[in-house]
Amino acid sequence: MPRARMHRVPPTRDESTPANEVSPVKSAERTVKILETLAASPTRLTLTEMQERMGYPRSSLHALVRTLRELKWVEADETGSAFGVGPHALLSGTAYLDRDPALQFAYETLEDLRSEIGYTIHYARRDEGHVLYLASRESRDSRGRVSRVGRRLPAHVTALGQALLAELTEDEVDQLMPIKLEELMEATIPNRAALHGVLDDVRKRGWAFEREQNTPGVACVAVAVGYRIPATDAISCSMPVERIIADHYHVEFVAEAVTRHAEELARKLRREGIR
Question: What is the pLDDT, as a whole number, of residue 143?
Answer without folding.
Answer: 53
